[in-house]
Amino acid sequence: MINFSRNLAQLVGLVCFIGLFAIMGCHRNSGMQSASSRKLSAPSGDPLPVASLTQGVWLKGDLHVHSRHSKESSNNPIAKILAFSSKVGMDYICITDHDNHVDGDVAHHTWADPEFTSDSLLLLYGAEWTTTRGHGNIFSAKPYDHKRLFEVRDQRDVVVGEVKNKLGIHLSANHPSGKDHFGYSYDMLESLEVWNSVLWSNNANAIMIWDDMLSSGRKLTGRGGSDAHHGLPDTPELATKNSPQAKANYVGTPTTWVFATARTSQAVVEALTNGRVSVSANPFAPRVEFYADSNQDGTMDMMMGDNTKAVGKPVTFRVKLTGNTVAKEPYTISVVKNGGLFGTFQASGPTPTAEFTDTPPSTGRTYYRVVVEGPATAYPQVPESAALSGKMVGLSNPIYFNFDPNF
Predict the structure, then answer these.
(1) Residues of the domain holding 282
(2) Please, which residues bridge with residue 307 across strands?
(3) Domain count, the chain
């Protein structure tokens, strides 16, 4: 759990108040093999499916939310979370209650709650793995035996990793650089929470850790999570000292977008594992899309999450903002290459777009990712969030060259 109250108080004054193995599978787009499935495989042992650039579906949601089954939360029953998520247009949600609050038995608490059902939202099964060595979230498209993971939380990484792999779950490190940081081997992970809560400024060290892990050859997906614990009270007498947080940090601050093969829970987990992911400040903020034309034929044949062999020739990259943009305001697109700033570009218009060209070397690993800043997007349902997220609009996952799929 983040120390949200202290940081919120500080910022209010200023504004008026990151498995063990990887498996690469390729698909063909415009004659170019480019995409990689990694880390988890299907029960058959085959690589996870990856969406075609022209036939996938964008889905948005929140991957870190606490309900009343987390004992420190308030005014946040599952029904309230799901109703709110539907209202703001979410496609999926993962309620990640602290497992230590129920001795690891989330199956008979969060998942067994009669309110854990939705006709409009894809519900992932998960929990926050809450240990003395830090916190991590589990994501699964179906129920799994969470108590097995809870029971080995104090054992060696190799034991934890074996249990995690047998369960077939996606493991993600939460708030890796702050309180309750992830203290286990990053080789066990599929993803990393690089953007925790509306307070973007608190994530600088998490981004540094992400770049360190990427530079080491780990294809770790960067994701977001609001880590929201508190809802608005139904009546004034139910208010707590933490109730004001719901006006600043709630479902969707930030929002994690996945480019999936279909509108299913399994496809959400697969896309998250494959790195087909971007993060935006809230559900209404522009979505960051990042593509590459690896053979210079004029057609984009790669997108974030994809990995291919570099051949020492130029590659054209394209960054596009889709959705609720401010046409007359400029957006600043910062391109990060191998952990350092490669260049900064300005884009504006209804669909702000920027292109650049670079030549990834034929030897050695190279990755590119983007960060976008610009005008804040209003989030009326969480009215104080836009001021806290500031100019941060969104970020992409990397496009990779020469990353070893068996790392």
Answers:
(1) 4-401
(2) 400
(3) 1
Its sign, for the CA torsion 77, 81, 281, 182, is positive
* Residues whose CB falls within 8 Å of the CB of residue 254, separated by 6 or more in sequence, listed in order: 195, 197, 198, 200, 224, 225, 226, 279, 280, 281, 282, 389, 394
Decide if 11 is inside a domain. yes
CATH number, domain containing residue 319: 3.20.20.140
Condensed to tens digits (0 to 9), the pLDDT of residues 179-218 reads 888 999 999 999 999 999 999 999 999 999 999 999 999 9
- Please, are residues 361 and 310 in contact by the beta-carbon 8 Å criterion? yes
Contacts of 129 (CB under 8 A, 6+ apart): 99, 135, 136, 137, 138, 149, 150, 153, 171
What does the pLDDT average to over 224-247?
97
For residue 21, being part of any structural domain is answered with yes
Q: What is the pTM of this model?
A: 0.90
Q: What is d(CA 268, CA 266) in angstroms, rounded to the nearest whole number?
A: 5
Distance, in Å, from the CA atom of 162 to the CA atom of 184, rounded to the nearest integer, reads: 13
DSSP 8-state code for residue 201: G
Helix (H, G, I), strand (E, B) or coil at 214: helix
407 lies in some domain: no
Give the 3-state secondary structure of residue 255.
strand
Q: Is residue 44 part of a domain?
A: yes
CA distance 328 to 30: 34
